[in-house]
Prior knowledge:
This protein has helices at 2-20, 24-42, 46-53, 55-88. The protein is mostly helical and 90 residues long. It has one domain. Helix 2 packs antiparallel against helix 3 (46-53) and helix 2 packs antiparallel against helix 4. The two termini are 26 Å apart. The relative contact order is 0.08.
Amino acid sequence: MVVMAQQKETETAKEVGKRTGRDPVILAAAGSVLLSWYQFYVRGNKEYGLFIGLWPPTLLAFSNAMRINNISRKVESKTENLIDWLTQGR
């Protein structure tokens, strides 16, 4: 039983890893880094390059906050179900 749970967790982690590389937020962050370098080094527009360079951490932080909220909601719903199950059993 424990082995099956571990295998399921491993498969889930692999699926998440595959999706992570195609996450639109990561692609947008990488694109903004490239655009920032282009503006800073190629066009010589240093202020605009620095401004665009601030986008990736903001995008990634917002994405992480959204994921943490989603995980938190799932944990809370599971906890409520567990508490209901435990109180009904007594």
